[in-house]
Amino acid sequence: MKKEIVSAFFALFSIGMFAQTSTGNLPGTAQNFIKQHFSSVSVTGVEENSNWKIWEDEKYEVKLANGIELDFDENGNIIEIDSQNNEALPMTALPAKVASYLQANHADAEVIGWEKQDKEQEVELASGIEVEFDAQGNFRKLD
After folding, report:
1. Is this prediction's pTM over 0.85?
2. Residue 141's beta-bridge partner residues?
3. Is residue 101 a contact partner of residue 123, using CB atoms and an 8 Å limit?
4. Which stretches within 16-95 are classed as H helix?
5. Each residue of 12-33: pLDDT tens digit?
């Protein structure tokens, strides 16, 4: 009985996700983003989250060989970049206004995470500092 419950649990959660290493199922916007900013890094996994996972904002999750994970919405717009191995993100992958602020005010800092929500953006630096911006990329505060 215990084995059947565990099997059913894994089957239920695997229905909504399809893992592969090809970016062919991603919207063109997401494919272009990966080619433009991460062309030298191979893709190790692509997962498409189903609509029933309402607690998840991302529709597509792409894992790269260097430990960077990219989350895209259903239209292929980037909504989160996270470095699992503290690999520095390319500044070109960040919105222009955010990248300009960071280069002017934190020139030597390495960015290891970026997330965009409805009303704000947040950047995580390798030093542990978090820099918050509004949705348009205007600096708000340091955490």
Report:
1. no
2. 132
3. no
4. 28-38
5. 444 344 456 677 889 999 999 9
